[in-house]
Amino acid sequence: MFWEFRNTIRDYMVQVFSGLFAVRNPANANAVIPMKEAINQTQINEKAERLLNEYGNHILRLAYSYLHNLSDAEEVLQDALIQFIRTAPQFVSTEHEKAWLLRVAINISKNKITYYKIRKTDELHENLAAEEKEDLDFVWDAVKRLPLNYSEVIHLFYYEDYSTAQIAKLLNKNESTVRSLLLRARAKLKAILKEAYDFEE
Amino acid sequence: MILKSKYKDVMEHVEVTAEMQDRIMKNLHSVDFGKKQGNGMVNSRKYISIAACLVLLLVGAFFMRNMTKPPIQVVPDIVEYTSSDELSKGVGFMVREVRTLPFDAHRIQYFAYWKKLAHIVYEGNENTLIFRMSAGSDDISGDYNNYNDVKSFKLGNNAVTLKGNLKQYNLAVWEADGYSFSVNTSAGISEQELLKVVQSVQ
């Protein structure tokens, strides 16, 4: 009786300890960590990599157009990816997926501006100056000096090639408002750039 | 020259580098995406990892503090109120308001920052105006942009400074009765319009 009890206890202890060591030993890790969690982590990695490859530059550039600072823009990109993975929204097309991410990036960027305002460091200006691309630096400086509601429509229209209807949807504004913002933004840019540039293709 | 292609060229100088991608992927690994917790051992491993990170952080912070003066990250204490009266109670002084806006506001939001700075947002379709008020004489606007046009005016006993570009002004700062004030607009407005806004604050 005593030996049976002792063997039961011993078997139990072996199970407990093998479990403990399995956690610590990477070779046995899969035996302990639930498969669901392991798959999810892989899915997260795959999803994040896909989003970064497909939309990373678009989100980063949009955030930069608001914040004029690379580390803040990187934070916006990261937060947008986190929101995407956390929310796991479903879309009928990649265009909708991209628009969702840009919308989130716009919101995060605007929140950052409200609370912290725009920082002084502007790596893009520094890079363009270092590369002696005066013409590009001139354009960036002009866009940067625009009020926020002008520069955002300029970025979405000229960089993302969105129509005024798409911009209106993205910014939750009327299309006529977007058209008028675009007109005013162009007028301001013309005044700054002194007619040196044509706005159409 | 065509602006569109130039602007695209500008933007291509901003890109996700391999290092940035690595940083983001690493940071994503440490995010809890709201999954169900695993068994107790996995939980304890998680907490041990967090504790180890905290210890590393503290040790790192200690050494960094002795080596350099790091920038201070301040987590803002922001409370939203539903009215000016509530905001006044929140900050401990009678908050003034902008009575004349250069546009129609469809939403007004009231915030207290660190229980001492009143921050009111007047949101319109094409412009947004932020009014701030706090005790003291510091510039409380939080606007660190470099403006080309800076003008000073005397309104009663108070000196008001307007800042903007191309005769369109975005910022006004002034002091009165022991308080600092600022008005900030997202889209620039004329000198007269901004002065009218300042005069309407009461």
Tell me what the structure shows:
The complex is a heterodimer of chains A (201) and B (202). Chain A has helices at residues 2-24, 29-32, 35-67, 70-87, 94-116, 123-130, 134-144, 148-159, 164-171, 175-193. The longest helix of chain A is centred in the first third of the chain and has 33 residues, at 35-67. In chain A, helix 3 packs across helix 5 (94-116) and helix 9 crosses helix 10 (175-193). Chain A is globular. By secondary structure, chain A is mainly α. The N and C termini of chain A lie far apart (93 Å). Chain B has helices at 3-11, 18-29, 40-67, 84-91, 191-199, and strands spanning 78-81, 107-113, 117-123, 128-135, 149-155, 158-165, 168-176, 179-189. In chain B, a hairpin with a 2-residue loop joins strand 7 and strand 8. Chain B is α+β, with helices and mostly antiparallel strands and 202 residues long. Chain B has an eight-stranded antiparallel beta sheet, covered by helices on one side. The longest helix of chain B is centred in the N-terminal third of the chain and has 28 residues, at 40-67. The chains are: A mainly alpha (201), B alpha+beta (202). Chains A and B meet through helix 1, helix 3, helix 4, helix 5 and helix 6 of A and helix 1, helix 2, helix 3 and strand 8 of B.
Short description:
With 201 residues, chain A is an all-alpha fold.
Helix content of chain A: over 70%
- Structural class label of chain A: mainly alpha
Q: Mean pLDDT of chain B, nearest integer? A: 82
Q: Kindly, what is the distance between the CA atoms of the first and last residues of chain B, rounded to a whole number of angstroms?
A: 49 Å
- pLDDT below 50 for ≥5 consecutive residues: which ranges of chain A? 12-39
Protein structure class of chain B: alpha+beta
Largest interface: A-B, 71 and 51 residues
Question: Main traits of this protein?
Answer:
heterodimer; A: 201 residues; mainly alpha; 10 helices; B: 202 residues; alpha+beta; 8-stranded antiparallel sheet
